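#struct-help
A.M.: can someone run this one for me? Single chain, 118 residues.
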Amino acid sequence: MLRSGIDQIMNEQLAPVLFVLVYIGALIWGLRRSMTPILIVNVLSAATAAIYIFSAPGLINLIYALGLFELGVLGTSAAALAGIRIPAWAIWLGFGINFVLLATMTVFLLTFKMTRLF
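D.P.: on it. Structure tokens below:
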């Protein structure tokens, strides 16, 4: 049930573009004011990606490595939101890598008109 709902959202062409815009908005706000939007976007996107990756059967090990990376981003961002001191470079690294992956995936989906991710 969860996978079919995520597939329906991701199959729309608008959803990936909206995700990129959310990242851009968090980046602008994060650079001007505080790290809170960056941390919230990191937690939400990493949790969503990890759930999606680890619920998919029969994936290759490289995808599981991405899932482990997402769990690391989730852990560091959640810890920072909870008040634990985490180096800023770790937060920005997770945000930057996720942003590049999301932008690349969005261009790919819009270019090749993908109908399913897995």
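A.M.: thanks! The chain has a mean pLDDT of 80.
D.P.: also worth noting: DSSP finds five helices and no strands in the chain.
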